[in-house]
């Protein structure tokens, strides 16, 4: 089991603290989604003129960079050039750090656009961006997020793109919580393209759907144990990445609590789950 976490969960930590705590808590890797307030980390000295020093620090700690999580929203035509530039910058970092993946979002679909048109536009945009990524031996992963949570909608995009350069990041929380999609259905539809996961837990509120409360891993009702068992049975070799949304939900427990608790919960699954 390979464990990572996104830096969304520790928005106040400087780089050195991220690295030292990742090692102390027992993680294998870091998924960079911002650093000390800057989401496009390639703008920071640590990932530009000081990038070789950063690489040594991470490597010396026995860690890897599992993914660079971008802010790219594929549907947007207005931000296409900006998104292309972001993919270029993250692709360069991937090559330096030996990182295989860049996370992208499908994005919110405009009210006056049909699903069919949206699929075509997202497929077209990601295909252009994927050419850049592929030249750096990098893969773009579209997350099951925003208007692309449903496996059926995601599948329509994957069927139109170069899947050597485009895959799926399965946020195991959103399809189950938001649209009631069972994990087996998600895997049956998208499994051939799933190469990375985001893990988080929550408790359902009244009425279900988007009415829920994030909680520590294992304290909610997302079937995490069943999802882990499914992934192991199907031969999944990727990371199990904690996405603790502390930056967006400051009321959540601090990473000093949530991060080591996640490692303990996930490592315990190894002994509890039999295939």
Automatic annotation (TrEMBL):
InterPro entries: IolE/XylAMocC-like, Xyl_isomerase-like_sf, Xyl_isomerase-like_TIM-brl
Superkingdom per UniProt: Bacteria
A Pfam family reported for this protein in Swiss-Prot or TrEMBL: AP_endonuc_2
Record's protein name: Sugar phosphate isomerase/epimerase
Keywords assigned: Isomerase
Boundaries of every Xylose isomerase-like TIM barrel domain copy: 21-254
GO terms assigned for molecular function: isomerase activity
């Amino acid at each position: 089991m390979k464990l990572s976490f996104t830096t969304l969960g520790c928005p106040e930590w400087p780089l050195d603290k991220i690295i030292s705590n990742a090692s102390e808590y027992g993680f294998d890797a870091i998924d960079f989604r911002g650093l000390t307030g800057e989401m496009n980390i390639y703008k920071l000295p640590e990932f530009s003129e000081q990038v070789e020093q950063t690489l040594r620090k991470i490597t010396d700690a026995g860690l890897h960079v599992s993914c660079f999580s971008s802010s790219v929203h594929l549907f947007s035509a207005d931000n296409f050039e900006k998104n292309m530039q972001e993919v270029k910058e993250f692709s360069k970092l991937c090559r330096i750090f030996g990182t295989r993946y860049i996370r992208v979002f499908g994005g919110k679909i405009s009210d006056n656009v049909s699903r069919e048109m949206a699929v075509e536009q997202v497929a077209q945009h990601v295909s252009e961006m994927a050419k850049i990524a592929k030249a750096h031996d990098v893969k773009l992963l579209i997350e099951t997020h925003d208007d692309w949570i449903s496996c059926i909608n995601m599948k329509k995009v994957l069927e139109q793109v170069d899947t050597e350069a485009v895959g799926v990041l399965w946020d195991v929380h959103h399809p189950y919580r938001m649209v009631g999609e069972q994990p087996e259905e998600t895997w049956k539809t998208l499994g051939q393209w799933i190469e990375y996961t985001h893990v988080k837990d929550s408790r359902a509120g009244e009425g279900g759907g988007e009415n829920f409360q994030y909680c520590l891993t294992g304290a909610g009702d997302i079937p995490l144990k069943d999802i882990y068992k499914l992934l192991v049975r199907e031969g999944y070799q990727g990371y199990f990445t904690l996405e603790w949304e502390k930056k967006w939900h400051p009321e959540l427990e601090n990473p000093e609590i949530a991060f080591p608790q996640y490692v303990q919960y996930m490592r315990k699954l190894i002994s509890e789950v039999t295939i």
